[in-house]
TrEMBL record:
The keyword Transmembrane does not apply. InterPro entries: Aldolase_TIM, rSAM, rSAM_sf. It holds the Pfam family Fer4_12. Keywords: Iron, Iron-sulfur, Metal-binding, S-adenosyl-L-methionine. The keyword Lipid metabolism does not apply. Signal peptide: none annotated. Gene3D superfamilies: Aldolase class I. It comes from Kribbella antibiotica. This is Radical SAM protein. GO terms for molecular function: catalytic activity; iron-sulfur cluster binding; metal ion binding.
Length: 208
């Protein structure tokens, strides 16, 4: 089974509890205004991998508490998403699986139910810039965090969630990759501080 992947990272602490493996799927048909990850929208020229290769990467990691699948829009690749979640569940039965989607909870829990089978929690609804806020793990206040299993309830309802002020930065190959959900104004401040330090961006994955 092939899957379009933007990137993977470990350990990630900003996208769920504990040390997580994060998998960003490539391609998004939703195009929320104000999306900070517009580099994940397009599919031409993107990396096509086997789901099994992604699972091998996951299997090579030690001390993984959870897996976060984001994008892009994971449900734009329904078969790959289903295979990925099933594979994680099979190979890492103790980790929690969180899936981000810009689709509505109503859609995901009805028509999309099969493709998220095995996930412990989902974050649904498109990003709405006018409702950008400070809720844990969510970019805008309309977005819903829904626990689907007892493990999901334990980790996402009863347990502590990451502080939104924490953003991880990964610097490689002339790029700064941001991991996390920036609170309003943070990216503007990032650009301002970079300019003050003599750094300018050739491009960003968001629009000012
Ligand atoms: S916020 Fe998510 S669903 Fe919305 S455009 Fe960006 S990647 Fe797509």
């Amino acid at each position: 089974m092939q899957i379009l992947i933007s990137r993977t990272a470990f350990p990630v602490q900003a996208l769920g509890p504990g040390d997580r493996a994060a998998i960003w799927m490539q391609g998004c048909s939703i195009h929320c205004s104000g999306c900070v990850a517009q580099d994940t929208w397009g599919t031409p020229g993107s990396t096509r991998r086997q789901v099994g290769d992604v699972l091998d990467w996951l299997g090579s990691l030690d001390d993984v508490d959870g897996v976060t699948i984001s994008g892009g829009e994971p449900t734009d690749q329904p078969e790959a998403l289903q295979a990925l979640i099933a594979g994680v569940r099979r190979t890492r039965p103790m980790v929690d699986i969180l899936v981000y989607t810009g689709r509505s909870a109503r859609w995901v829990l009805s028509r999309g139910r099969a493709m998220i089978a095995g996930a412990d929690a989902i974050i649904t609804e498109p990003f709405v810039q006018a409702e950008a806020g400070h809720l844990p793990l969510r970019g805008s206040d309309n977005q819903q965090l829904i626990a689907l299993t007892p493990l999901g309830k334990d980790r996402y309802v009863d347990g502590p969630l990451p502080d939104r002020r924490r953003i991880q930065l990964d610097v490689a190959d002339g790029e700064i990759r941001m991991i996390g959900i920036p609170t309003p104004g943070v990216l503007t401040e990032l650009v301002r501080r970079a300019a003050a330090a003599g750094l300018s961006f050739r491009g960003t994955s968001w629009q000012d």
